[in-house]
Write a structure and sequence with these properties.
TIM Barrel; CBS-domain; 8-stranded mixed barrel; Alpha-Beta Plaits; 5-stranded mixed sheet; alpha/beta
Length: 587
């Protein structure tokens, strides 16, 4: 490569004045650094209003590629001053118009990497659709070129452009970075959560890593963690810094948050199902792979990793069987001149999840792809083991047994243990607000005494059916026992709308429960039964009281020991209210 071969003296001086800031990208489950993104700084010092103006200027002068190569040298050199840079990746932003320049040539990046003793697998080129509308993008060309050169590629600002899903289909990048637009206040917006979850789970199914970009609050971070994003970047972790020793290996504030997250509770159940299959390295020759299957004859499916022990997919023994039984098949497979590309052509994509992922996420990912052979499990972004399809089915069966054991036998709703578990999650999680509601059937004992247990059970089943039919799946619904029920929801619309829905439950039950009475009692509007002191008394027809508590994320932790007590007191007050509902909020 001819250094600065097409750069003017003026542009050489401008490059000298530019500086590089780095922003960390960390593992969302552990707080450990995964990569840094290089960001250009000091553009004002060379007379440009924005970074984009700098690149537009060199493009117009037809020196974009020469400029970019010299910029890579500057970035790579500073990258090596970060502590333990050898253990992290460097995300480098590319201008997609590179291929439109007359000076473009291949092999220059590797030369610069070697100059600074940086491994090829440490570099990830980041591309976006900024120039798509100008028909200058060439995004697909850039992606294909660098993937063919065996570089990692990330798509930036995913979801805001036009070709994102097409690129996933055509080229399948190693990483996507979900745009900040979809992540801002995601914990408050159900539509954003659904979209980000859909994007994330699709990417995972294709074996793509997901970075939640631009995270600025704890609530955004925790929501992205629950959705299943692999990595996080943003001001909440650290702002871009020009001082490289400020880049840390572990971010203690994130580690503390991670330790308090309830998602880590199920990892023990996952671990016992993980197979510790020895992986194949992507640069293994076919001769070595044949030897592997001869040694491990029980392994029909084998994870494939890169030199950094990061998973890149699965290798299926069945894919090479046609060669094994062919007269010249083994010779073809053992052809050393084409071993790398041949192995790459056999690797199939596979979902990967962190060891700290919860069981629900694993089941959902597996269930959404009926052809999945399993899921690769990582720890700190490195290969840890493999969950086979059979083992995931065993996990699902185990979960179904647990759910069935905790169901109320009459209503089939989650029972008291699951309700307590849910309340514990609400109390310990501070990422979102909740609306909690206790329902208690009024005058149920008197009805049960007069009409018997069979009709008593029908009344309970009637209420269960009403909440199932009239409250959407976003609600948690539980049957504490007897005539006590519990529902809860993390609100994504105005609290008043939920209040209307809960009042509707009360009205529907009171209207429908009248049909359980005799015509005489129904017309009279009450029944005669004995109270707890064995005295005859008039009891009104069945109704239901609701204690509703609004709990916001800001005040939840200080009241977490008292939420049950507050709900119990509200339930007593609700029975005295004309509309049988009592509303309160933690201030």
């Amino acid at each position: 490569m001819k250094k600065n071969s097409c750069l003017t003296p003026a542009w050489k001086k401008k490059i000298d004045k530019l500086d590089i800031a780095f922003q960390p990208i960390i593992n969302i489950n552990t707080g450990r650094i995964y990569a840094v993104e290089a960001l250009l700084r000091e553009h004002l010092a060379i007379g440009y209003k924005s970074i984009f103006d700098v690149f537009d200027a060199v493009y117009e002068e037809d020196i974009l590629y020469c400029f970019d190569l010299e910029l890579r040298r500057k970035v790579f050199k500073k990258f090596t001053t970060i502590q333990e840079y050898e253990q992290m990746k460097l995300f480098y932003n590319l201008d997609n118009r590179l291929f439109n320049t007359k000076n473009f040539s291949t092999g220059n990046t590797l030369e610069i990497l070697n100059e600074f003793n940086i491994k090829k697998e440490n570099l990830c080129f980041e591309i976006s659709e900024r120039h798509e509308l100008e028909k200058q993008s060439g995004m697909d060309k850039v992606l294909q070129h660098y993937q063919n050169e065996n570089y990692l590629v990330a798509i930036d600002d995913f979801g805001t452009g036009y070709a994102g899903y097409k690129l996933l289909f055509d080229a399948t990048p190693e990483v996507i970075k979900i745009d900040r637009y979809f992540l801002q206040d995601i914990q408050k917006d159900m539509k954003k959560r659904l979209m980000v979850k859909s994007i994330t789970h699709l990417a995972i199914q294709l074996g793509i890593q997901v970075v939640a970009e631009g995270i600025e609050t704890k609530e955004e971070y925790l929501t992205c963690k629950d959705i299943g994003c692999h990595f996080v970047q943003g001001y909440f972790v650290q702002k871009p810094t020009l001082i490289t020793h400020e880049i840390l290996q572990n971010y203690s504030d994130i580690v503390k948050i991670m330790k308090h997250s309830r998602r880590d509770k199920d990892t023990g159940n996952i671990k016992k199902y993980i197979s510790k299959i020895d992986p194949i390295k992507k640069n293994n020759s076919m001769r070595e792979i044949l030897a592997y299957f001869k040694k491990y004859q029980e392994n029909a499916i084998v994870p494939v990793v890169n030199d950094a022990k990061e998973p890149i997919g699965l290798f299926f023994e069945t894919d090479i069987k046609e060669y094994l039984y062919s007269p010249y098949g083994i010779s073809i497979l053992s052809n050393e001149t084409d071993m790398k590309s041949r192995l790459k052509s056999f690797v199939r994509s596979c979902p990967s999840i962190d060891i700290n992922s919860d069981i629900e996420t694993i089941i959902e990912l597996f269930s959404s792809n009926t052809n999945a052979q399993g899921i690769i499990v990582t720890k700190n972004a490195k290969y840890y083991g493999f969950l086979s399809a059979n083992n995931i089915i065993s996990i699902m069966n185990e979960e179904n047994i647990i759910i069935a054991r905790d169901q109320n036998p009459l209503t089939k709703l989650p029972g008291n243990r699951v309700v307590e578990k849910y309340l514990s999650k609400v109390q310990e999680s501070d990422k979102t607000a909740y609306i909690l509601c206790y329902f208690d059937l009024d005058n149920f004992k008197a009805f049960n005494d007069v009409y018997g247990f069979r009709l008593g059970d029908r009344a309970i089943q009637l209420f269960a059916d009403i909440i199932n039919k009239n409250l959407s799946s976003k609600y948690f619904k539980g049957h504490i026992g007897g005539d006590d029920f519990f529902v809860a929801v993390g609100p994504d619309k105005k609290e008043t709308n939920y209040t209307v829905e809960l009042k509707n439950i009360i009205t529907r039950f009171e209207n429908n429960a009248r049909e359980l009475y005799s015509v005489e009692d129904r017309n009279r509007g009450y029944i005669i039964s004995k109270d707890r002191e064995a005295k005859e008394k008039h009891f009104a027809l069945l109704s239901v009281s609701a204690a509703v508590l609004f709990v916001n994320s800001a005040n939840k932790s200080q009241y977490k020991q008292e939420i049950n007590l507050i709900l119990s007191q509200l339930k007593k007050s609700a029975k005295k209210e004309p509309q049988h509902i009592c509303l309160s909020s933690l201030l």
